[in-house]
Amino acid sequence: MSHRPINPGDNAFAQAHEVTNPSRWLFVSGQVPADEADNVPADFAAQCRLTWANVERQLRDGGMTLDDVVKVTTFLSDRRYRRENYEVRKAVLGPRRPAITIIIADIYDEAWLLEIEVVAAA
User: In CATH, which superfamily holds the domain spanning 2-121?
Assistant: First the structure.
């Protein structure tokens, strides 16, 4: 199996992501900024880092890593969080360039400022 970003930009994402002959797919449901005790940080950056940690835990439990992520969908509660979301995502993903979609939405719980779901292939 191989995958490669198509038209990757400087923005920590690619316009598309090609996957060739995957043997496994993992669809991670929307992860939220709550820890195992249901604690939710107050500020956006901390919520974003916790949400990515929750994504990574699901990937690990599925036998995958961030290297296998080919698609990310982020739901933001307000567009004012775009820049912080970008900064945290760029720090978490490093050189990885999955396809990305960001949607401004009314989030399920008012305390949550974002939700992230991913698709991974291996």
Answer: RutC-like (3.30.1330.40)
